[in-house]
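forwarding from the other thread:

> can someone predict this with zinc ion?

sure thing
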Amino acid sequence: MTCHEAEGMILPYINKRLKDEDMEGFLNHVLHCESCMEELEIYFTVDYGIRRLDDDEGTYNIKEALFQNIDSSLEHIKKVHILTVFRYVMTTLSTMGIIIIFLLQLRIWWQTGIF
Ligand SMILES: [Zn+2]
């Protein structure tokens, strides 16, 4: 991912509109690219500041809030990966099941002399 692409994803990320398939690449880039991380911090700080002004809470540890946000996004990606693997496993198992049922049916037809 280029810095230009990552910068385009900062606002969707902050607004929680970034697609799951883009999230991993975005976070990997941002965690390893100082200038994009800086950019993300700026946008996050502004967004966070506006939200906190509304609910008037005393905590202003924005950097920690950003890293908590990134952590929960990474956790989310992990869950999506697990669900994807689970879906592949279930698809494979059900396909194998259908093939086995079909082969057994063929055997029954063969034994009863239909073939
Ligand atoms: Zn970058």
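The longest helix spans residues 62-111. thats all i got for now
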